[in-house]
């Protein structure tokens, strides 16, 4: 049976699980389409659930994808009280996956769609985040436009 799209993932009815390769292809297609249509930045999975099928075994092997990012952008993640806990710059021209998950589970050469960026769910001080609601902002460096959203982490 062919996998079918479910929310932000792709479920394989025969295995009852999310197929990481199909998820990667879906993210790539979505990024290309959204760039053409100028859709707002998103993140997946949301909510993030611990021990998901695409995660590694160690805490540093976890990842959450931001996609539909502007070619050059700044991403900040905040606590609900507004404290910045993590931030990174995205450059679609040279991003190739800079978190441990890619080093441990991905083959080289990696090819990214250009509008996606993985985050390892760790603060800038390398602390693992706890269960809760977090906020994020994405600033398009070229236009200065800022978009915001929410991330839910369930452990």
Give an overview of the whole structure.
The protein is 15% helix and 35% strand. The chain is α+β, with helices and mostly antiparallel strands. It has a single domain (40-154), classed as Macroglobulin (MG2) domain (Immunoglobulin-like, Sandwich). A 5-stranded mixed beta sheet has the order 5-11-10-7-8, with no helix packed on it. Strands 1-2-3 form a 3-stranded antiparallel beta sheet, covered by helices on one side. A hairpin with a 5-residue loop joins strand 7 and strand 8 (84-91). The model is unreliable at 1-15 (pLDDT under 50).
| Spans where pLDDT lies below 50 across 5 or more residues | 1-15
> How many strands, what sense, and barrel or not for the largest sheet?
5 strands, mixed
Q: State the total count of DSSP E strands.
A: 11
State the helical fraction.
10-25%
How do the SSEs run, as a string of H and E? EEEHEEEEEHEEE
Which homologous superfamily in CATH is the superfamily?
Answer: Macroglobulin (MG2) domain
CATH topology: Immunoglobulin-like
- Which secondary-structure class do the elements indicate? alpha+beta
CATH architecture: Sandwich
Spatial strand arrangement across the major sheet: 5-11-10-7-8
Average pLDDT rating: 74
Give the C-alpha Rg: 15 Å
Query: Judging from the principal axes of the Cα atoms, what is the shape?
Result: globular
Count of separate structural domains: 1
- End-to-end separation: 31 Å
Q: Can you identify the CATH class?
A: Mainly Beta
Beta-strand portion reads 25-35%
């Amino acid at each position: 049976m062919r996998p079918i799209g479910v929310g932000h993932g792709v479920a394989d009815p025969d295995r009852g699980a999310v197929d990481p390769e199909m998820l990667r292809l879906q993210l790539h297609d979505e990024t290309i389409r959204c760039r053409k249509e100028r859709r707002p930045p998103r993140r997946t999975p949301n909510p993030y659930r611990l021990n998901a099928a695409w995660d590694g075994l160690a805490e540093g092997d976890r990842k959450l994808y931001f996609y539909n990012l502007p070619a050059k952008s700044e991403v900040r993640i905040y606590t609900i009280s507004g404290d910045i806990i993590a931030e990174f710059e995205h450059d679609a021209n040279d991003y190739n996956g800079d978190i441990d998950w890619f080093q441990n589970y991905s083959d080289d050469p990696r090819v990214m769609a250009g509008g996606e960026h993985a985050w390892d769910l760790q603060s800038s001080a390398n602390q693992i985040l706890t269960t809760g609601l977090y906020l994020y902002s994405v600033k398009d460096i070229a236009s200065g436009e800022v978009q915001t959203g929410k991330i839910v982490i369930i452990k």
